[in-house]
Amino acid sequence: MAQVEASGPMLDAAGVPLKASLARAERRNRLKALGLVFPLLAFILITFVYPIALMVFRGVDNPTVSTILPKTAEILRAWDGNGLPGDEAFVSLAGEFAFASKERTLGKVATRLNYELAGSRSLVTKSGRKLKKLEAPTKEDLVEIDKRWSQPETWSVLKRLAEPYTFAYYLAAIDKTYDVDGTVVDQPESRQIYVALFMRTLWVSLLITGLCVLLAYPIAYLMAILPTKTSNLLMIMVLLPFWTSLLVRTSSWIVLLQTEGVLNDILVWTGIIGEDGRIQMIYNMTGTVVAMVHILLPFMVLPLFSVMKTISPTYMRAAKSLGATPARAFWTVYFPQTVPGIGAGSILVFILAIGYYITPALVGGRTGQLISNFIAYHMQQSLNWGLAAALGGILLAGVLALYWIYNRLVGIDNMKLG
Amino acid sequence: MVADNEEILVRFEEVQKSYDGEILVVKNLNLDIAKGEFLTMLGPSGSGKTTCLMMLAGFETATHGKIILDGNSINNVPPHKRDIGMVFQNYALFPHMTVAENLAYPLVVRKMSKDDIETRVQRALDMVQLGGFAGRRPAQLSGGQAQRVAVARALVFEPKLVLMDEPLGALDKQLREQMQYEIKHIHDNLGVTVVYVTHDQSEALTMSDRVAVFNDGVIQQLAPPDQLYELPENSFVAQFIGENNKLSGKVTATNGSTCTVEVDGSGEVKAVPINIDGIGSRSSLSLRPERVMVNPTDGSCPNVFDARVEELIYLGDHMRTRVSVCGHDDFIVKVPNSAGHVHLRPGETVKVGWQAEDCRALDA
Asked: What is the mean pLDDT of residues B339-352?
């Protein structure tokens, strides 16, 4: 039999180190566990993690100029960026413009340049069209086509676009831009919209979360103290809107809240407001908030209810027997025990609200739009995917940061979802 | 029941309680509790004992009748103004507060000064031998420790009356017995009035000055523990408290302090008439197993019968012996394991006998 050294690793009966044989014995179980989660893991990786990673990448990706105008891009990258570049840059640009114009790829360059420099789309297309007809275009030809080619600003923007990666989208997403010298400055006042929009989204989400807590707490409490039969009925009523199509629910809010809608009609009919005093309750922020609170309410009620259900009524009795008034017993004994439920419901509602799209799109009108609507706008209308990706990336980072703060303050283990 | 010179702290006057308007859970309860007394409400579940306690605490309202505390009716006084301490079945220690905060709660509510609260909390913790546990959370306490904290919290604001609702139900047997003595000692030292609810008769007998045996919403008997065991007034109490041999039969004769009951099947038994309706009525005879003698000397007992030994169970200090007597095969005899005790064997027939005064003729 093998001599086991006192300082050596523990051996099993066959003389194999115990750790190794334990690992071998456990391997089967681990493989089994991995096999069970693998389909979901693969699904999430392909349909969730990968697209998000792509989107975040698209926020810094800047391929247009470096692929369509490769030579010019190379020359511009080598240029120090002061004043105007050397003549070879002009010649190379003119040649590649003419080529790209023939290949019909110049439009992408025009669009891309237009994001950075308003009005430059026409500059690019016009230049391309005219350069196509010239045999060997020179710097002078270019300047003759448009004076802007003699301005350093045009070239400094082009140089920035020549880099394969850029922070321009992220800067645009926080209302900043590069100036001629490449330093970061504020966008002109008239184009500053995203910071205000982020703030508005944040504030509206907080408001919706707060309203959900206020509305959900009493109903969850009622459900927790009622006998199971009655509370089940209430639960079904809470969940009923959950089972209705989001579109149907949102449309019914339109029916109720519009200027010629049910609520306004009732108010006019009862004489509370005059015919000309009909209140605008939809297609603005009010509509967004009302409809979103309604839609997100179950996400607050359910965690609250599940937490309250576990709190024995004896605690309240104990507090009262110790001399606390019912109100005091509630605030000092019952309420603190429901905080994990409030936390869980709040983080759920808040994260859902901050990225909500369909409801603000339908009932938000012009003033009730949130950041997600602008992300959708840049995805579908303006086709500025880079900016959409940057806005989405900031939103994602913000949610993760809030989640992290929440974890530090409340502790994610304290969260009870059910 | 309470002696005249003792001051009455709690009085139930014709109290009734119904939850559904059809069934009375408590039927016409009259009960006086003296100051400083340790009174236990004992009974099977559903007997109304906890309902009585909850009415006293103010968590249930009496459907009819009056509850008087210290001379004043408290029917319309909300629980938080009654100044009654309460220990709950599952302790009900506030999980989000430390032990010290739990104990301080009733004092903070009463707006006492910080120093005052600190000294009282420490004193209460010392009383239950948990001086070093002030900073712990209830979840970090063992069952016995949590129980002690709950008791300390119910006493820390010096209430006139402390209610305990099966406080030891969740503890294991050994800890339960230890806690019984501790609660009893605290009661003796502080002189506080305690109303204790339990379904465990040994707990009731160990701790109480008086025990109220509840069944079916009615107090069956209210007496000190020894009387309850030795002088049960009806067959429910006889059966519920301790071990009991029950023989049913018909009363054939009464003669002042003794009566004769003809046990169904065979034989006449002499017994003390306690709770019978007269000649011809049905009666249950109650006889404690330790009062039965095996092979009594001739003439020493008026009741002697043949008994067939069915089963022997060895319990160390005594042999629990099941025999068939007068057609009842669940008759228990305790044979003490003393020097020279009789050795019984299953299947053999012996004589068993008992005194007439140990056998009580009760309601059927």
From this structure: 85
